Amino acid sequence: MSNAKIVVNGLYKIFGSHPDQAYELLQQGKDKDEIFETTGNTIGVKDASFEVYEGEVFVVMGLSGSGKSTLVRMLNRLIDPTYGVVEIDGRDIVKMSKSDLIQVRRKEMAMVFQSFALMPHQRVIDNAAFGLEVAGVPREQRYERALKSLEAVGLKPNAYSYPDELSGGMKQRVGLARALTNDPSIMLMDEAFSALDPLIRTEMQDELLRLQSEQRRTVVFITHDLDEAMRIGDRIAVMQDGAVVQIGTPEEIVTSPANEYVSSFFKGVDVTQVFQAGDICGKGPKTVIERAGSDLNSATEALKNSADEIAFVIGKDRKYEGLVTAESLLEAKKNKGGKLENALVANIEAVRADMSLSEVLHRVAHSRYPVPVVDDNNVYKGAISKTALLQTLDRAV
Amino acid sequence: MNPEDWIEINIGQWVENLVGFILDNFEPVLDAISAAIGFVALGLENTLLAINPLVLSAILILLALWRVGWKFAVFVLLSMVLILGMNLWDPTISTLALVVGASFVALLVGFPVGVAMAKSDTVEALVRPILDFMQTMPPFVYLIPAAMFFGLGKVPGTIATVVFAMPPVVRLTNLGIRQVSVENVEAGRAFGCTDRQLLYKVQLPLALPSIMTGVNQTIMLSLSMVVIASMIGAGGLGNVVLTGIQRLNVGLGFEGGLGVVIVAILLDRLTQSFGRIRTSEGFFTRLMRALKGEQQKPTVTGSEQSETPRRAAS
Ligand SMILES: Nc1ncnc2c1ncn2[C@@H]1O[C@H](COP(=O)(O)OP(=O)(O)OP(=O)(O)O)[C@@H](O)[C@H]1O
Ligand SMILES: [Mg+2]
Q: Does the first or last residue of chain A, that is N or C, have fewer Cβ atoms within 10 Å of its Cβ?
């Protein structure tokens, strides 16, 4: 398994003047509102513990006020935790001295903001070079690196414009470039794309995914948009009233939500976007016939002994070759040369495992037979039957 | 029975005692202040007076062209002709020097105070009432201790002006820094700013429009002290107006007033032009643009929003 880049343990943020008192009440099981009424303290985050693995996109979701921003700001100590541990590469930043902390912020982590937070008095290139300027990197060097990161987000031509001359999407690209210039191993993004209109937003998500495919960084991404979380998240943490109530892959969370809150959150989520063909292809017919070493008779036998109506034929290295049914086998025996190849039903094309359900829906619905699923190398992974598809759609409603 | 007879709180006496105490015990301090202010105020005035009126006019016109635009440059040109024509050049320069000198000192003191207020709620809570007091006290009242501590002349005139004009720059520096958006400050810190870098690279630049509005208002307030300060011998256009009043010479008073208005407009427009958040366009670009008669690109800053403060002088 990948190693943990960020380890959070028993993390609390209690806003207000007497956190200990509020902490006591929390341990007694009092909830956020009661505690606010009795002590005047607000529970920002309570008892969060999780790990973020190196190179993953870790999404934090939750309703407004659930503590997402507070949580992510404790990862670089823009907000000082009240209790608990935040380890970055094994070093507890909560106990770190101010100057060490500044070094970590300059070298290890960068942040992207919802309102972009660019410096309006500086040109795009100066904005992109901000982190290096602060770190005292000489001008020529920092411009060079800033240009490189601007190029990575497609904004090199605008390097000498001012932020107010750019559109919202372009501004956030500058925000992204500013983060990239420092070449951080961790990026913290607080609702980074929430201020953008839907089209630009999807575009920026793709941009982020593309950047990730070029160089994997550890990304902690805050959002309250479900589709966004599903789209870019390797894993999702769901927050409720300051607590992290569930962590898992998008599929895990959709299929087995930890509580009412989580399931209501994911109600109405478009599962055809969440799931890929590969996720549900294990539930189709199980019968597989290896062509090498099989002939029409043994295939007929195998099919008869199974519960399935059809069987998939695979060749060398489990490459998908086709599909046979009892009739097609019989037909081949009667009319043709009597070889297994002749029994393959015509025109059954496989779908790729990484296609989303929405892309294969039509195929499955209109196919007489379950639709075979293969990976990029045409290796057989399984098949999707109408029943399996319906069950998946049903459970998520 | 008259309640005034049996309640006796002699604040006036206390203040007198305090002033006396300061006079007796802090003479060296007062002398030092006097020397410093004198150096600034008189130095500036003598320098400006030493420059040939035509040269100084030309400089001002060019400055107007660079910072504001050709229309304003024409206005400055006409103003200079008017002032020379009214034979008010020396008093005008003297007033300009008083205002600029006093504003400079007010900034020198007020700006750091404003920054300190923005950084600390305690400091803000302490300074705010003092500012309220300074602003509501009628300006004439400052003349008395100023004259007692520093005698008559330009130095006490400048000092009274400084005290009266300082509050806006303190307030607006504080306000400007506090109004910088939370995410901008967070961005500064997240990318590894030290406290000092945060101030210089994020807070002050983003607060600049507000700070410049404060500077502008401080200058305008200094101008409104011109006539009052001339009562303790600050001279300049204020003196011209004062003479006009004393002799019931309406014409002279009006001429002096006109001079004050011209100085006010000049300083107002010039300082506002420095409140634009972006200042990277070189002198030459601006000059060329001005010569071509193009409008300044509108920028989102505070300078446009700032309403012209208090009319200068009475
Ligand atoms: N500086 C603060 N002082 C007091 N309470 C605060 C402070 N910052 C946040 N809170 C409280 O902490 C809780 C969590 O806030 P937070 O901003 O982390 O929520 P969020 O999940 O980011 O919400 P949103 O989706 O609206 O951004 C809220 O109840 C909020 O009112
Ligand atoms: Mg938030």
A: N
